[in-house]
Amino acid sequence: MCGDILKYADLCCECSQGAIQDEDPYGIKLLHILTDIHCQKGQSVRSCCREDSHRCPMCQFPLDQFKEKGQVGCPECYTHLCQDELQSALQLSQRALDHQGKVPLTFQIPPEATMKNCHKIKSKSSDNDLSYSV
Amino acid sequence: MKLDDFLSTVADSCKKQGPEQTIVLSSRVRIARNVKGYSFPGWAKKQERIRLFENVRPVIESLDEMKSSFSDSMDNLSSLEKQILVERHLISREHAARNSGSGLVLNKDESLCVMINEEDHLRMQLIQPGLQLDAAWKQLDEIDTRLEESLPYAFSRTLGYLTACPTNVGTAIRVSAMLHLPGLVLADQINQVVQAVSKLGMAVRGLYGEGTDALGNIFQVSNQMTLGESEKDIIDRLNKVLKQMIEHEENARASMVEKKPKIVLNQVGRAYGILSNAHSITSKETMNLLSMMRLGNDFGLFSKMRRSLVEELFISTQPAHLQKNVQDKLSAEQRDLIRADFLRGKLRSVSRPSDKFAEVSSADGDDSDPNI
Fold it and tell me: What is the ipTM of this complex?
């Protein structure tokens, strides 16, 4: 959507950002929405958020302030702000880059659930094998 | 309830006993937690901070551990009350500078304190006397687990608990112990030990944490890194470092008594002399001399003095604690006079240190300089 005109285009990630930047009169908002959708599909945020990674879309915290004070604005900044900056800050101050230790209960995968998933996958694959053989 | 009515007397708060208390004054475990959907306090607008404070405060107050607790917003506390909390190590200096939208909940025995909207939404700390890091973590972990049932924490599977500063992400745990190390200072070994400890990924700071001096030969040792290592591993590693530091301190003390007993007697005797006779004394000088009296007490030089008296004087002679008993605002000079009066009064019942090492030192010719 660009003004009143609806345009269709098959664009790659890089080109879509350029196109939106060039033509979207409302600027970054649409880019945010699209990059968010894109990121949710599994693409890393790092590769598709180059332009808007200077400000957190959730809290509007500017990257410059992180560079200046070493703190971020909200938990979402860890996902949306420029990952290179954050990574290098973490590399400088931390032992490793993966969390070890306590995990809140809501983030824990119950062992029964994992087992259930395994059974599901197993039964699905055996069904597939069966259909293939038939 | 007013803070002054809630807080135990300094004497009572110093009576608590713990393992390794000759050298380890206290152990502290602090964790940072943030609530999903809110900006961190440093970036949040005042209204957002107030909203978070109002949502979180009743949850903290409802904890079993917080029965009969003290709870208030920082803007209801006077600057003197805030300073008293800092001097008792119950809140950080940074938190004392905060006002509306920030607050604290402190349990009855003053071992558990939750700062709301400090650098992070929640900073919970548990303090135990002596070396008790494992026990402190166990207790704090249980409290945290109960809180997470009501508060949706900001957490990432990769980065762990998310905090305002990336230096705290992961476990978001800061484990520290307050050590009294006069032996290493007198033996001039403290810098070597501090350097070695720093290389092991630990930070060594002064009495009131980051950017403060090691007054009274008191050092705070804590973990620096929070990501990539579990809470248990961090605590185990710090425990190992602390045990080594305790051993070094004990060796330094033993070596001093054996090789230069006059230095110990001289330092302790002078400390007692000045503290019990001075008519004006600064906070810094008081702390350093009290450290020597504590050392003397550890060597058994004060026959009837309880160790908690020195701990009590460490806190009671701090500026806000002196100011609390006086109506008018004191200048630094006036405080020095009142401090000296207070110390003379308190030490009146303490008899002068014995010259236990006198016979040993007569054969030692190296102790001719009384100013060492």
Answer: 0.82
